[in-house]
Design brief:
It contains one helix and ten strands, in the order αββββββββββ. The chain has 162 residues and is of the alpha+beta class.
């Protein structure tokens, strides 16, 4: 009788450990699959700011203002393919800033950089862009800004130098 009770207790403990392990495994997978399944809650949409069309961010400081958000971007000096260049962004009250470099109509791979806070309202980093084998030099910097009042997207065109 003692032996059967001990066996039942061991099986119960093993089953409890298995359940705990399975729950821990699911908890570890949640950050990966949770947002994909909709379990992570609704994500706040990006609010686009007015697109800059008359300024080249590699040659001058460009800015856009909209929804109470003022964004200033400066790339370079010395923006050339395959050479690191500085990125400086000014935006008040931001919690995080990511910049994505894309070439319109061309797949140039993932060129994504998280900028570091350099001072209140000022973000900085370094970036490097690949060479376009077709010879194109037109790029777009898509700046993703996280603030307490929402997520904002600013788009700045620019050209790389020779």
């Amino acid at each position: 009788m003692k032996r059967s009770r001990r066996l039942v207790r061991m099986v119960t403990l093993d089953l409890a450990r298995f359940r705990l392990g399975a729950l821990c495994g699911l908890a570890c997978l949640f950050p990966v699959f949770g947002p994909l399944s909709g379990c992570g809650g609704p994500e706040r949409p990006w609010r686009p700011l007015p697109e800059v069309t008359d300024c080249d961010a590699a040659r001058a400081v460009c800015e856009t203002v909209g929804s109470g958000v003022h964004v200033r971007l400066r790339l370079g000096p010395g923006v050339r393919a395959m050479h690191p260049f500085p990125v400086v962004l000014e935006v008040p009250k931001a919690h995080g800033v990511v910049i994505r470099f894309e070439m319109p109509g061309m797949d140039m791979g993932k060129n994504v950089y998280r900028l570091d806070r350099a001072a209140p309202g000022r973000w900085a980093g370094k970036a490097i862009l690949p060479i376009c084998l077709s010879g194109r030099t037109d790029w777009v910097a898509r700046v993703e800004i996280e603030r307490a009042d929402g997520r904002y997207l600013a788009v700045f065109p620019f050209h790389v130098g020779p």
